[in-house]
Amino acid sequence: MREIVQLSAEDYHSVFNKSEATKLLLAIDAPLYTILDANCAYLNATNSTREALVGKSVFGAFPANPTDEESKNIERTIFSFEEAIRTKKPHTMHNYRYDIPIRDSNEFEERYWTTTNTPVLNEDGSVKFLIHSPTNVTEIYKLAEREKLAMEALRNQRKQLYAIFMQAPVGIGIFKGPEYIVDLINPPLEKIYGRSFDEMKGLRVFDALPSARGHGFEELLENVRLTGEPFYGNGLPIPLLRDGVPETVYVDFVYEPFRDDDGTIIGVICVATEITDKIEGQQRLEASEAQFRFMAESMPQQVWTADVNGALDYVNERTQDYFGKTAEHIIGAGWQEFIHPDDLQACLKNWAQALETKQLYQVEFRLRRLDGQYRWYLARALPFKIDDAVVMWLGTNTDIEEHKKIEQQKDEFISIASHELKTPLTSLKAYLQLMDRSVNNAESPGVFVSKSLQQLKRLEKLIADLLDVSKISAGKMTYNMDLLNMNELIGEVVQNVQLANTSHRLIVEGNPTVMLHGDHYRLEQVLTNFLTNAVKYSPDADEVIIRSEVQDDSIVVSVQDFGIGIERDNLGKLFERFYRVDNTAMKYEGLGLGLYVSAEILARHNGTFWIKSEFGKGSTFYFKLPLNV
Length: 629
Ligand code: ADP
Known about the structure:
24% of the residues are buried. The chain is rod-shaped, with a radius of gyration of 61 Å. It is built from 21 helices and 24 strands. α16 (446-474) crosses α21 and α17 (486-500) packs across α18 (520-536). It has a 5-stranded antiparallel sheet with strand order 2-1-7-6-3. Strands 9-8-12-11-10 form a 5-stranded antiparallel sheet. A 5-stranded antiparallel sheet has the order 14-13-17-16-15, sandwiched between helices. The protein has 629 residues and is of the alpha+beta class. Bound molecules: adenosine-5'-diphosphate. Adenosine-5'-diphosphate binds at residues 529, 533-534, 537, 561, 563-564, 566, 574, 579-581, 584, 590-596, 619.
């Protein structure tokens, strides 16, 4: 058995001094708490010597740091001493600050302590002194403080992120787990979905948005969560029920994997911006563009647009058909290739001027058709302006060939009419002068009177034709419809024309007796015109045949001559106003009005007409009238 060593007071003293724990023995002489002894560990920890401490009040030896007003160490220490004395049990103060003076200076060193004040009791149980044993916890304290600060910073960062999340101008949502439970959605996403976070919180996202189910979004989410690959959707339509109204909402969005701290994917983050307005704007634009195209394509004219610099950028199909070229070709070449060389300069000049002044462009030119023929066109374009800036030019080319021709015919007509009117007038004047002379010379003026009358009749006929044309133009031609006998009408006309024309024999064939409803005078006019033409345009022949026969419920009347005939190309135009076949116009008198007036009269009788002719051999003019009496 080991011998038990008896320890002396010396030994205890050395245990006291060698102890690693700091120890200070204090007298119970409040408020001084005089230092009775301090061990080496304590002296080291407090940068002090035993001589400087022993016999002094602990508060005198360790005055409070005047710059540290918050710690209230003295009060706390006194409280701890009192507690230990009162309870007769050790009392511990944790992590409190009690700075120690730096030796030979007025400065203090920041220190943190955990201190136990242990009462040492007398045999009678009263407190003899206190063992004041502080442990320097400065390092631990500071470490803990740093950690606390780091945690605080983290918390702040989280708060900031949350604020950014909530205030972001784009929609953000977090859907967690394989069921995509709505974990968080910010106000813009609430707005896009038309549902609040409170309504959606904790639900599977597609349970919260049932109308969006089954459009492929589930698969996209799943793919992002399983592969970690983000998905970018541009302008995808999502059917949603917003405020109870079904709507298609267009969004640009990203599905990003949502990871926890160790990188494991625990859901999907959705970032979305609604672009419905933009898409709808685009759709409206497309619709109005389609409308414009439709309008442009449905117009009978060539329609085109040019950019602000005047470069052609669109032509309608009609234009392409006319030139027999593709839109690309025409746009690339511009009009120049197709404009008649004689008209090009004026056209270019006008266009340049219009571009410069931003005013109406208008010019007439000839455009070469697919078959090489030139036709007259009126080109017009107006600048389309927004805020006074030209955005584009919209132009049309209108075919004015017919108009031009009529203009030309009108000019010719006026010259013919004045010539035609002048001829009988000159003759009349001459006969009257002769009459005047013969009266004075007592010669018989009879022959001059009848010749004068003939010329007067001619004049009368010309003026009557002119009047008829102007009546037709004004829609004022009146008709006296009555029951009439066609057989009689033909007989009368033939007789009259025959009387005035001895050069030809007028032969009547058929001529059944039929009654029809019509204007006697006007139908006479038609037949007279056919007959006089037949005589006039067959100067070398001596016969004209008039046939009439009943066909079904109509009567067909034809007038055949053996004269100059009409070229096939001209056949269709004879009934036009002012039209006269070129090569005969100067040779034969007439205004080119008779057939035009006839056509009008026949039309008003629901009749039709046509011509058969062989150039150089003769013509047959037909008309057909219904007999529905
Ligand atoms: P015009 O007073 O010139 O005869 P119309 O209107 O009666 O006027 O006839 C128009 C044109 O049709 C004539 O100028 C002529 O060129 C042609 N034409 C009319 N009838 C005949 C015919 N029987 N034979 C040949 N040409 C004709």
